Amino acid sequence: MSTSPTGYAGNWLPSDQDPRFDSKPVGELATYRDYLRNYRLTLELKCADLTPEQLATRSVPPSNLSLLGLVRHMAHVEHTWFQRALQANLDEQRPYTDPGDPDIEFTGAVGTQECVDEAFEEWKRQIARAEDWLHEQSDESMATSLVYNSGGDTTTVRDILVHMVEEYARHCGHADLIRECIDGRIGQ
């Protein structure tokens, strides 16, 4: 197998070292959790072994998109949907929010170890909180309707979880391209 930056036979890691898996989930909730777990791991893998400066490297001008910005953005997204929408924790301080800079997740992603550590800590904290909530759910709760904003809009738990999978899928695609630009490493 190749150990070049282009991966291992087209894969990101040797198959025996890849933490992502297809657990053959049974049921709707288990399927969502499996996809979320694997996409979260994919984003983490795409950020692995890079310096703070590399993590903060912008994709292409004039975009603010960077791997570190994606981690910060996903912490914000996890909080928005799992805490605010699904649990109505509306009084909590939202991570990476600044009324003067709606892109603070990305513009505030700077190449320092402190910024990197804080971003990954916040993202993992939000994931743990989401997983705690998901652990209490069932397949039957997926169709539950709920109000998710002050405008009175309603949706289902299912819709929010599908949206979370969609968010990670889109941003892991961004992460693939950014990582390839940084060091040429590619793979699933």
TrEMBL record:
Alphabetized InterPro entries for the sequence: DinB/YfiT-like, MST-like
Gene3D superfamilies: dinb family like domain
Source species: Nocardioides panacihumi
Listed SUPFAM superfamilies: DinB/YfiT-like putative metalloenzymes
Renumbered residue ranges of the record's region Disordered: 1-20
Protein name: DinB family protein
Domain of life: Bacteria
